[in-house]
Every structure is written in C-alpha cells, then in structure tokens.
Amino acid sequence: MQDIYINITAEGALLGKETLQTEDEAQNAYFQFRSNNTIVQARVVGYETIRHYHKTAEGQQWHEEPALIVAFGQLLGHIPLSESGMRHTASWPRIVGQYLACMPDRFHTAEGRTLYLFSRGRALEAMQKANLDKVRPGVTWTGVIRRRNNYGYLVDVGGFEAFLPLSHVSYDVNAPHVLQRGDMIDVKILQQDERRKRTRLIVSRREAQANPYDVRKHQYTAGSIWSGTVRGMRGNVLYAYLHDGVLCRSVVAAERTVFRMGDKVLIRVHRCDDDQKLIVGSLVG
Fold it and tell me: What's the average model confidence in pLDDT over 82-88?
C-alpha cells in the first residue's frame, strides 16, 4: 500500500496524506477525484510500455507508448508519456521513487487488464492556474527540490519552476550542497520572470530562515578574532561569512591581493551594525 498526498502546494509535497487501504477504496477515490479534478501527489514506482485508447481526429484508436507507473493506494496507475509533460523518457530512471502531481484522467479494460490513466500535464496546468496570483515576490512558500545543476537547485513552487542559487541555500556557507531531491523546503520568492512563455521564479531558502546575526551577535565582542569565508568583494570592501553564517564587512588595504570567493580569512571584530545586520571588522595579518 502506498499513501497519496492531496495538495497543490508543490509537485512532490508530502502534505495532506490520504491512506487508501483497500482496492475498493482506491477505485472509489479514483472515480471521485476524476469527477472533481482533484490533484494528487503519487509515487512513481516504475515504467513500462502500455496500449491504450487514444483520441485522434479519426476517433478513438489503439495507441502504444511508454508510461510511468504510479502507486495509488492498492491500485497501480499509469501516466502516459503524452500526458507526462515530458518530451522523452531519458529522465525516467531518476524519477522512480519521486512523487509527481497527477489527475485521474480516464480508464478502460482491454485484454484482461484495467488501465487507470493519469495526466501530469493537466495537473501542473491546474496547479499553476490556482497559484498564479499567490506566488509573488516577497511571499514565503513550501517548495520541493526537483534536481540540481552546477549553480543551484530547481525547485517546484506551486507547480512553477523556480531556481534556488547555491548562494541562497543557507546562511551556513559550509552547507550549500546539503539538499536532496524530494526535500520540502521553505523559500522566499525573490523574483518572478514572465518574459518567457512560462513563469519562472527566483527563490531563496536563506531569506526564509532567521538571520543568525539576530541570534548570535552578542558573542562577537570588540577585539575578538574569528575565522571567515570570503563571499565576495565590492571595490576594496570584502564581505565574508563567519563560521555560523553571520556576515562581516571589512575594508581591504589597496596593496592587498584581491580575494576570491571561498578564501579563508581571519577577522578582528570592531562593532556590530544592527541596521545592516552584519559585523564590521578588519583583516588580521
């Protein structure tokens, strides 16, 4: 038995658990959800090639294509490639085990087998339509990690694709790569790009967390020396994260070598800047 989750928060969000203990319960839920266009998050357990009726200009015809297998309580359903919102099957081995958004679509019995078909494409469209006016800059939302690239993570937020840069994963500079596919995280929406045909969001997990400066500033007494990791430079001003993620600003002498992101430095504390929520200091050595 595999639980399903009913929500439109994000594709793969494990919220609103629904347990379908018997095959009859699963069948009844399938037809009920089909009638009211309920979006469910169901776990992919495999994939195979199926034959099903497909609507064409000439009417219903048999059609053979690959399909993802999803667990719907005691039932096994299928998301055909044509209803998956994907162009090919190359990513399917990596999708097995993940939860996908889908809607009960149609069913038929043939060759001694009943196929319960689902549509992921319709589910994502419905999620986006329902959440379009809600996913705005400044809003904090629960998203789900879908995959990672060299620059950050792709996150589903309300059915929309969002990009989470590595620099916005956490205040802890030692943990930018800690997230795993399928993790649910709270993010703050920073930007909304609608110049393309689809809406894309830029989000920050760090901005959705409490600023460590507010919690730990008392430990940074004037004259104390701390290790830091360079975040970047603006002119001769160096910004570095201290060991617990608190940001520090230091002025670098003109004759000093330019630092690179990730370099380790020692910083002497001068004062705390509550307005900018950072430590003002100077480099040691």
Answer: 94
pLDDT band at 227 (very low <50, low <70, confident <90, very high): very high
Rounded to whole angstroms, the Cα distance separating 30 from 37 reads 10
- 3's tokens: 């639980």
**Bridge pairing between strands 247-251 and 278-283:** parallel
Would you say 101 and 95 are in contact if contact means Cβ atoms under 8 Å apart? no
Report all structural domains of the chain as residue ranges with CATH numbers, in order of start: 4-125 (no CATH), 134-208 (2.40.50.140), 212-283 (2.40.50.140)
Residue 6 CB coordination number (10 Å): 14
d(CA 190, CA 203): 5
Q: What is the pLDDT of residue 210?
A: 86
Percent of the chain with pLDDT over 90: 68
What is the four-CA torsion angle of 111, 71, 103, 122, rounded to 10 degrees? -90
CB atoms under 10 Å from CB of 196, counted, come to 7
pLDDT band at 136 (very low <50, low <70, confident <90, very high): very high
Burial 239-273 (b: 16+ CB within 10 A, else e): bbbbebbbbbbbebeeeeeebeeeeebebebbebe
**How many of the other CB atoms lie within 10 Å of CB of 170?**
19
| Confidence category of residue 18, pLDDT binned at 50, 70, 90 | very high
Distance, in Å, from the CA atom of 202 to the CA atom of 71, rounded to the nearest integer, reads 32
CA 37 to chain centre: 24
Check whether 197 has a pLDDT greater than 70.
Answer: no
Check if the beta carbon of residue 40 is closer than 8 Å to that of residue 46. Answer: no
Which token pair is 129?
């339509």
